[in-house]
Amino acid sequence: MTRPTPPTGLNTVATGSNEIVGWWTASSDNWGVYGYWINRREAGTQDPPTKFGTNQTWFVHDDVEPGTSYEYWVEAIDLCPRLSDPSAVQIVTTPSP
User: Around 4, how many Cα atoms within 13 Å sit in the side-chain half-sphere?
Assistant: First the structure.
């Protein structure tokens, strides 16, 4: 049994001072990919990430703070459940109002 492939091509964009959108290329797996964990934390910290579950290959976060940098990375999970290696980390900064 193999784990899902890591999500690739993660892109994150601040679309406003309180909103970040992201998208990536779907993972693959011999058992089928069940969903994804989106991980977010303030950039430059070692704080545990906040995790958000989804079965889509995109997200909209409208609970972010203006003028703040965030790190995002995504992991896939299959039906077994096995977790993929993480995607590359993306850093995005929301504009100040």
Answer: 27
Decide: 76 and 33 in contact? Cβ < 8 Å. yes
CA-CA distance, 89 to 82, in Å (whole number)? 20
Q: What is the pLDDT of residues 60-96, one digit of tens each?
A: 999 999 999 999 999 999 999 999 999 999 999 999 9
Kindly report, residue by residue over 29-62, the tens digit of the pLDDT.
998 999 999 999 999 999 999 999 999 999 999 9
Nearest to 4 by CA among 62, 78, 57: 78
d(CA 61, CA 24): 15
The answer to pTM > 0.85 is yes
Of 82, 65, 96, whose CA–CA distance to 3 is shortest?
82
